[in-house]
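Minutes, project check-in
Item: structure for the 756-residue chain
Input as provided by the requester:
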Amino acid sequence: MTAARFRENWRDLRHAVNRKPGDNWQALAVHHGVRGLVVLALGFTLPLLFPGQPEPVEMRLEPGMVAPSDVIADFDLPVPKPSDQLALERSDRERAVLPIFRLDESAPDSATARVRRFLAELGAALDAADSVGDDPVSRVLDEHGVLLGAAQLEYLRSASNRRALEEALGRGIAELLPRGVVSAQSAGAFAQQRVVVRDASGDRVARRDSLRTVGEFAEAAFAYAPGSVQGFRSFQSILLGLTVPSLRPDPLAWQAEREAARAAVDSTIGVILQGERIVTAHERVSQSDLTRLRAYNEELANRRGTLVSRGGQLAGSTLFTALLLALVGVVMLQFRPGVYREFRHFLIIVGLTSLIIAGAALAEHMALPMVLVPVVLVALAVGAVYDGLVALVVVLIATMLLTGLASLVPLYEPLVVAAGGSVAALGVRGVRRRRQSWVLVAGITAAYAVTGLSITLLAGFSGRVLLETLLWGGLGATLYTVLALGGLVPLMEKATGISTTQTLLELCDLNAPVLRDLSLKSPGTYAHSINIANLAEAACEAIGADSLLVRAGAYYHDIGKMINPQYFVENQPKGRNPHDRLPPVRSAAIIRDHIRDGLRLAGEHRLPPVIHDFIREHHGTALIRFFYDRALEQADDGDVNPGDFAYLGPKPQTRETAIIMLADGIESASRVLRDPTPERIRSTIDAIADARLEEGQLDQCPLTLREMDLAKAAFARVLIGMYHRRIDYPSGIQAGETSLEPVTAEPDSSAPAIDG
């Protein structure tokens, strides 16, 4: 096998981790094997978090107690320092390390070169310019960041003045900059009064307030300035504009020194030798005696355990954990293959399941109630980002793992936790308002209460256990709901690229900055977007698509029109169309650019990726027909490139973006109908939908013909309601005056094209 072929196979196998592997056995092995390795690693790691059965110890004492007998060491043993003492010593040693500033030896030469280049470019610009305010001079000043007034520029028109100024600046820089110049911000960024200055000759310690700042350097350098007023001012402006600090903090070196100082702290307080007395009989036990005794007891317990029994327990726990985690993967593979196929989604879900187990280990170590295990937190996050089925599976598998690993009440607490987590998993999708989160908290607490009460009655537990469950469960439900909806879910949205209901609701707020700008800069486009949102939402509800997502997409799909609003018909005053003065290809380019401008604005405002899809796909690769036909009419030889009049796409990839494409065209076409009767509205809807089908714009989305019929019926219902005629009033007002009349007299086929 050649090297190129090997690299190609390796690349294909790496790609198989995140792609559907197909029938290739190697790709299948990589795709599922990587996930299997993750499961095995977690299966081995998670049981280690639980101590298991209490280990045997020789003697348990507390400070101040009298030892009943001597404790003699049977082996040598280093005594580790208490963790809090070790952390304190390391922190003290780390704080003692002084900040490091590195002197740039090349700074004087670089500064002199910048001065020389600036004066040369400025001289050339002044010689070529008619006046000091000409563009070449301003461009040179802007590029170098130097501020010079008109009088100073007149002074610098003289080549001799420039040479004298260059020599003066060179002397000041060469004399003062090598001593070290630091920015005031860097000098004041540290609390230590002393710092280490590092240069080619080594390190030296200096007081922080002795470091020369840029301002102090400039004051000292003014002694080298020319004697004339304009010469001095020019010297001052150029020096301050071109000087950069030559003494800069070195955070990497400082961090390395701090880490070395931490590592230098001895982690032990001594060594217990074989035969040494650790505790003396009939004497009070001091804190140092207790530290030595605890270290000895822990080592003694470790040595008493047999390799076979400990290994067997670990193997059983590993197998139990791995099998249940693998069950999570199997459920995803069978019922959510898209989530299973994307490796980061698999890692997030399995990792959050492991987070529950780690939280249970911490709760057991700290003797906390099991209802504080973060089952609800994980269930809320997974249910919000993915769906209730995946979250429910995670909750049930985690509960089974806790039953097998944790030394907790066998029946009561796992079932209570499973009930609360299940309510969280299935209920989080219904939270669309802040106040509804309290309904979710109440539901989780109620699940704790009902399950706890039933088990209490069956098993005969005391009422105190149930009361503790309610108190701790309500507290945990409140805390984890706030953490999940306010912190973990947004983080998971960033990691997965999935937008949750809460994010979509925030995007649909008409007071959002982007939508406010759209309403002010492009009021016609804003109204157009609102109408499309109403149409698309009705269609999505009819076919079972995500109506909230499509409303958010409709609001933002045309935000690029804010850049040139006057070129789109909905924003134009009657009788004023700037396209009349432009060639068709230029008009088409302006119309097409609203996609690119919209994507740029979406990036600047950090809109989620799903909104980018609506902006990018709502026109697909369709022709801007109105200007294409006009170009054909104007071309003598008929040689017109259709690519100059087509959107770049891609075509709609989802049902929601396809619905927006249809709603966009239908709303634009219906707006120019002179007499929008129900028959004409339905005819227009059919024409637009058939045109999109014939153009192949809907080939790449999963929208079926039956769903299209349902969507068209929903479009018609909404549009007929929007354009219905009012009854005639007795005053003689004509029906046409009270009905919605279009504002353009262009043919129906032209309006959608100009709308973009």
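Outcome recorded: Strands lie at 71-72, 77-80, 100-103, 194-199, 202-207, 247-249, 268-272, 277-279.
No further action items on this chain.
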